[in-house]
Amino acid sequence: MTVDLSGGGNLLRVDNLRVGFGHRKAPKPVVNGVSFSLTGGKCLAIVGESGSGKSVTARTLVGLTGGRSHVTADRLEFNGRSVLGLGDRQWRGLRGKEIGFILQDALVSLDQLRPVGAEIAEALRLHGWGTRAERREKVIDLLTQVGVPNPELRARQLPHELSGGLRQRALIASAIALDPSLIIADEPTTALDVTVQAQVLDLLDETKRRGKALILISHDLAVVARMADEVAVMRGGEIVEHGDADDVLYRPRHEYTQALLDAIPSTHSKGTKLSHTSRPALTIKPRSAARGPVIKADGLVKRYHGPDGITRTVVEDVSFELNAGETLGVVGESGSGKTTTARIVLALADPEEGQVLLNGEPWTAASPKARRGRRRQITVVYQDPLSSFDPRWSVRSIVADALPRDSYPSAALRGERVRELLGQVGLEEEHLDRRPLQLSGGQRQRVAIARALAPEPSVIVCDEPVSALDVSIQAQVLDLLTDLQSELGLSYLFISHDLGVIHHMSDRVLVMKDGRVVESGTADAVFHQPREEYTRQLLAALPRLDRSESLTTDHGRLL
Amino acid sequence: MSTAAPAEVARTPRRPGYRAVQRYGLRILGAIGVLWAAATFTFFVQALLPGDRAALILNLETGQNIHRSARELAPINSEYGFSNPIVVQYLHYLGGLVRGDLGTSYQMHQPVTTIIGAQVTPTIVLTVASLLFAWLIALVLTVATTKRVRFVSAIGSGFETITAGLPQYWFGVILLVVLAIDLRIFPVQGGTSAAGLVLPALTLGVPLAGFIGQVTRDEFEKVLDQPFITSARARGMGDLEVRLRHALRHAVLPAITLSGWALGALFSGAVITEAVFARPGLGNVLVTGANTRDIPIVSGIVMLVAFVYVLANLLVDLAYSLVDPRMRTS
């Protein structure tokens, strides 16, 4: 722990930081009077939703806010030295050497045209470290240090040839190459599966234990709970609550922190509203399984034949039933075959073996023509509605387009029905003529749901419907889906990699791995008494924020 | 290691070079197909154009333009094989192409390959020099002016817009009048000397530079916003190095694709430029051939241009996989 103590023991001191963008005379403020300090061996987490100013705050600390920004502060000190108004050359001396910066999603944060080893060596070369041969050796050392197996081979490979977890480790290796005393990680695990996320967090924890200071930017409070000593909650460019991690996460004082915490779907949230702003719960109709399964999938198999002569089985012998008014959750890591299963259920991909029955009749085995008439019985909501909307269409035409012509023959009838659907999903008259790009992420997902409801389906396939949304918006959308289900008696096939979301939404759960269903059962059984080792691993890897238990344990942070 | 890989059930092992051979084999087959189509087209244009070819040849030889009797035409018909069925003529033509025989000029009575061969070098030199100039100008301009303060970026993109729209013959004349005649920096008639190459190559290269620059600038702007650029800066890399080492490689990919088309277009554009600068080359051959309806010469040049296009696109594929290593590994 070699920390310069001249800054009053603080490696980093930030007082009244303000960052604005745009014209010098009237900059649009993004960060509004933020103050914090940090010492070596500690982790400060800055949490907040998109637009809260947390990423801009992080970039200010490496001087990378961009040319059109205005940074002011009463004090902005690193290692006892003011970095306010540093020139580019001086900043370059700090970046990578004293301060390491890790961005999310290494696939786009590493240069795709260069081997990962070259990217790591670059961090060394820029600060004049060693000779070319020494650097080559050091790269291998670093990759070994961050737990990349077979480092000699990996160093020569391109980012896309590595799995998400290995890529993220390589990116971390490039950021910690010169052992900087401050590491800033901006959403370092957001694109990763839970088991990989756990490994990457361990790695960051390791650097913290070696006495490095860590600033973790995240929207995920569970990740924060695992890592942080201190938490600062940002909203609208300001820190609304700041304190010891346990205090902020388990005894929040600010209502916004409370709302963020309540919005997290988890074991205890089932059957309750996640969002404070959602409509009050409607009287829940008793769900009946009397109508029999709406979807019956039997022994589904799907293989892909690559051009290299390799056959990959992506779905292998998958069978399940989805009953009327029920939610069946499908959970698994990337590559587990959950999305392919959804595509087969939607009859967008043909199974090689097995078949799906929809409302008791052959569905995947029917002819395309026969299917067309019954398409309206099953609809879909995707993760990113923006790419499934024509950006030139208005909300009105997007929803009206999904209405069956024979039920709504006239424009007047369709117009009335579109208004009714938008009302159901909580959108207003004013949204009718907006384009997708003029809507927020949550509003877009509501339009996608309205479109899915338009043909009055009995089943909606939800493929990661909330994965791209902030936690409070996610809460509103999940509440909406729950309300619609009890109002309309819909069945959901609900796909997500997020175990909390799956547990919150599902009556029954399928756990998939490598194309197979490894475990299935009621949500409570799968989550509380998992039978399979893989399910246990998934649950163990999940960073948790379990407030009911925190009161009884001295530390509160599980894992 | 930890992300779930899809289960692999069957793997047919193949020799490592197999896919490369398969890929390049298909490309070359495609290229041959394109050349065959061009040959077929030029042959039937020759054979089916209105007017009797034998009469044309005889009129060219004698410098007259009168109606000829069948008896006069008979020896020419048999010499050139015009009396054979068209299929036989077509196969004969294709056979000649395979042996590298493009026929005999009606006017000069020399093999077309000899005539083209004597004049092709200056044209190739001009074409390649123009392409190099174009890339040099475009790269310097985009690296220097993309995403700078508004004033500088506007100069760069303004230059590109204006030059991309310049008509070559007009621009060539302006260059000639200003730099050669008024300022006497370059020779008016440079022949094949290096100094004489500059103005013709600029005439062709500057408009193309504007074009390549526009495409590269668009891409450059997008790339500079990518997270991996921020990563590089966060390692302590300076702006110029970020542009040269990281951004440029990504930004040139669309322009490389464009260069295949550009190389072919430059080859045809060289004709006009050679006329303006009185430069030796295929331009003169083509102009004379077209004026005298010397069809074998014209079709020979058409075949050569087709060949240049095909070759240029194969080169583009090669260059692309050199710049983008993902093409080699995936």
Describe this structure in words.
Chain A has 559 residues and is α/β, with parallel strands linked by helices. Helices cover 35% and strands 24% of the residues of chain A. Chain A contains 22 helices and 21 strands. Chain A has a 6-stranded mixed beta sheet, with helices on both faces. In chain A, strands 17-18-19-14-20-21 form a 6-stranded mixed beta sheet, sandwiched between helices. The two termini of chain A are 26 Å apart. Chain B has 2 domains: 18-98, no CATH class; 112-329, MetI-like fold (Orthogonal Bundle), CATH 1.10.3720. Chain B starts with 6 loop residues before the first strand and ends with a helix. The longest helix of chain B has 34 residues, at 112-145. Chain B is built from 14 helices and 1 strand, in the order βαααααααααααααα. In chain B, 75% of the residues lie in helices and 2% in strands. Chain B has helices at 18-48, 53-62, 70-80, 86-98, 112-145, 150-164, 168-182, 194-224, 227-234, 239-251, 253-276, 282-291, 295-323, 326-329; one strand spanning 7-11. By secondary structure, chain B is mainly alpha-helical. Chains A and B meet through helix 2, helix 4, helix 7, helix 8 and strand 13 of A and strand 1, helix 9 and helix 10 of B. Strand 13 (310-323) of chain A pairs antiparallel with strand 1 of chain B.
